């Protein structure tokens, strides 16, 4: 059987999270990692990344290197062109898994080797960062793609953290608000990542194992996401049972009229076909919530505010 599976290095790296759940990963894999009701507003982070990349480019053009706060990568001397499109930036790993994504930055160092950079608008937490291992695999995966598509030899990878100095603004707002604008400072710091492809190999080995499972694997004990998923299934089962009872009452009241029977069958067929079509769309990655739709405007309330009579 031909193995055909695509994943971004970042999603693959979720295997290393402390709260990694094989069942959730199996389900999300089938949905191209677009979870239901995900209304994360990430536009501001894309804007921040554009600014961060612009600053790095400015520093390289002005000085021919990066300042000391970017050590040990102050020797970077230029930006390298690469495909800024996930459809063009990808390769097949030896595991058979196709890796793809959108790398943030690729810089050339003094020795002509390359540095893979991922910009993070976040407070650096060091060893206490629960996502750091995932981010490291993300950059290692990008390094692998970079070499496989013959852009050059990657000697290093790094996370460039851009830490907004909000406490300074809160303490002295007048200093940072002028000419009708709030200008908040961001302090860069660097986390170096060793380009160890054996780490990527181990992660993709687990990814492939979970994906190839014919049935959902056991979930992590106490996984809240699993409970939410089963709650969704329970709600749908309740809806199905309610509709079935309504259909039976309508049929009984009509004396099993042929027109009513046809209507019931058509509605049942439509429900089943809609689910099949939704599953196909999820597999192709085209099933996304509308940015200006209902899900984008939902609020998360405590459990005690859930619907009930």
What does this structure look like?
- The protein has 309 residues and is of the alpha+beta class.
- It has 2 domains: 5-211, Lambda Exonuclease, Chain A; 224-298, no CATH class.
- Helix content is 44%, strand content 15%.
- The protein contains 9 helices and 10 strands.
- Residues 294-309 have low confidence and may be disordered.
Order of helices and strands: EHHHEEEEEHEHHEEEHHH
How many helices? The count is 9
Query: What class would the helix/strand composition place it in?
Result: alpha+beta
Could you give the distance between the termini?
51 Å
CATH class of the largest domain: Alpha Beta
The portion of residues forming beta strands comes to 5-15%
Task: Tell me about the largest β-sheet.
Answer: 5 strands, mixed
Shape: elongated
Rg, Cα atoms, Å: 25 Å
Would you identify the CATH architecture of the largest domain?
Answer: Alpha-Beta Complex
Number of strands: 10
CATH topology of the largest domain: Lambda Exonuclease, Chain A
Q: How much helix is in the residues?
A: 40-55%
The average pLDDT value, as a whole number, equals 86
Q: In what order do the strands lie side by side in the largest sheet?
A: 2-5-6-7-10
Number of domains: 2
* Low-confidence blocks of residues: 294-309
């Amino acid at each position: 059987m031909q193995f055909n599976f695509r994943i971004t290095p970042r999603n693959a790296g979720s295997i290393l999270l402390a709260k990694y759940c094989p069942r959730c990963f199996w389900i999300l894999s089938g949905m191209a990692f677009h979870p239901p009701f995900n209304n994360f507003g990430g536009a501001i982070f894309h804007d921040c990344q554009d600014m961060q990349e612009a600053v790095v480019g400015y520093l390289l053009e002005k000085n021919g290197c990066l300042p000391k706060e970017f050590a040990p990568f102050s020797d970077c001397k230029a930006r390298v062109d690469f495909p800024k499109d996930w459809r063009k930036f990808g390769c097949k790993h030896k595991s058979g898994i196709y890796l793809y994504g959108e790398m943030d930055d690729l810089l050339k160092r003094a020795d002509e080797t390359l540095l893979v950079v991922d910009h993070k608008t976040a407070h650096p937490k060091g060893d206490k960062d629960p996502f750091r291992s995932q981010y490291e695999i993300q950059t290692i995966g990008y390094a692998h793609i970079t070499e496989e598509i013959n852009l050059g030899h990657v000697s290093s990878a790094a996370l460039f953290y851009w830490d907004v100095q909000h406490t300074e603004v809160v303490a002295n707002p007048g200093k940072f608000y002028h000419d009708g604008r709030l200008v908040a400072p961001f302090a860069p710091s660097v986390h170096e990542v060793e380009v160890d492809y054996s780490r990527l190999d181990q992660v993709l080995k687990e990814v492939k194992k979970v994906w190839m499972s014919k049935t959902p694997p056991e979930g992590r004990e106490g996984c809240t996401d699993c409970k939410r998923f089963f709650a969704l299934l329970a709600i749908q089962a309740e809806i199905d049972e309610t509709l079935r009872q309504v259909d039976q009452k309508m049929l009984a009241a009509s004396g099993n009229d042929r027109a009513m029977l046809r209507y019931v069958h058509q509605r049942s067929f439509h429900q089943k076909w809609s689910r099949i079509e939704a599953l196909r769309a999820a597999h192709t990655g085209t099933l996304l919530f509308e940015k200006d739709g209902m899900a984008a405007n939902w609020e998360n309330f405590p459990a005690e505010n859930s619907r009930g009579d």
